[in-house]
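A common beginner's mistake is to predict each chain separately and then try to dock the pieces by hand. The better habit, illustrated here, is to supply every component at once so that their relative placement is modeled jointly.
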Amino acid sequence: MAKAATAKRERKEKLEDILVVDCDVHVHESPAAIMPYCEMPWKKALATIKDVQEFYLDIPGFSPGTTVYEAKFPSGQEGTRKVHSASQMREELDEIHVDIGVLFPDHSLKMPVISQVDYASALARAYNAWLLEEWCSPESGLLGCILACPQDPVDAAREIEKYSREPGMVGVFLPCAGLERLWGHRQYDPIFEVAQEADLPVLMHSVTVIHPVFPFNTQGFETEFGRHICSHTFSIIANLVHMITTGVPVRYPDLRIAVTEAGISWVPFLMHKMDKEYIERRREVPFLVDKPSTYLKQMYFATQPVEEPENLSDLVTMLDLYDGEDNTIFASDWPHHDFDHPSKVHQIPFTNEVRRKIFGENALRLFKIDAGGNRLGVR
Amino acid sequence: MRIGVFNIGGKLYGLPNVCPHQTGPLCEGKPPLGTLVARSENAWKFEWVNEGEIVACPWHGLEYHVPTGRCLAYPNITLRSYEVLLDGDIVKVRF
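With all components supplied together, the output reads:
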């Protein structure tokens, strides 16, 4: 196990000289933007709300917000930045030294809470078509993920198959926010099947939302401070637990799995917790042929929101604790309120070699792309 | 180095336009507002204080008290203050 900390004195490579693949940036899909790509009758529903004033990830009939429950005070933070076009994204990623950005939605992060199955799948289809047409471009270093609608796994599998050979699509986005049935439930098997077949990685991404399911039943926290602490990471943990439980990595051994926006400090916790439980309860999860952490170590973990200990070398230790040198991937979460400027991750005292892996080389392997953003094996 | 100049009640203050958190453009956000505190002296009730004196970095909202440069969330962090003078119509900053 290679040590990540700097052993000898080497000059730190400049951020500008490192290939940076940003594994999590967000496009803004407003109802008006995706309306042209949406089929009837759902297009009518988008027309109804297209002029509604929008709060942060919060449009009635589209995505539910959480801030309505508390007093709103004026704030100097620019917490509601949005990116409306590919050219704007390219410009802003240039400003933060990002070479290749992997695209996720804004409002559709909350897709799982939409109660109408057909509306949800129609929105997913519209989003995917809009994303490919108006955003995805390997030449511009903007690569998309196909949104897999959890309410309709069969249709999601069809969508993945439809876009599987597109050079502009490099992964499958599995929404986690407000999920009734966690990823790992057997109903999602068609999605894993086709993603593996297409050699596309699946990427889990959650968001903070209040919904009567674990871990989103957070109305008691009184603050976004509390809800945000207990949302993304707990959601990712819950989904990973269920995927291990039903043996997803075993039943789909070639499927690459990544998680986003959960930070990294919880990874050793989950590995140890699962391994300890496995001692007693192996026969509840008889799919596994090895201890659970073995499978977790094959997965990819995005850095954002990166933990910021006073002593940054603690992060080097943390990464070492889960053997994360080859599977930790940089993400900024631009333009969201809690994005990480790459300079923060750049400051961490990794060796140049490990820093390059985290900033870009590991992502190239996850997405099977070259440094120009081109999918290997797809013309 | 870019410096943001603030006018609070007629007094001028200068702060660096770089947030020590993640290099955000500290002075380019909204003009200074107030903020919330809860003190034992007031039975821990929420109070809105320092109206017009608190600047928040537009990136992550870290708050700074402009007259002193003190970071509210991390009291051990104080921004360097630049003395700002008005010479007729010209704003001068002392380095």
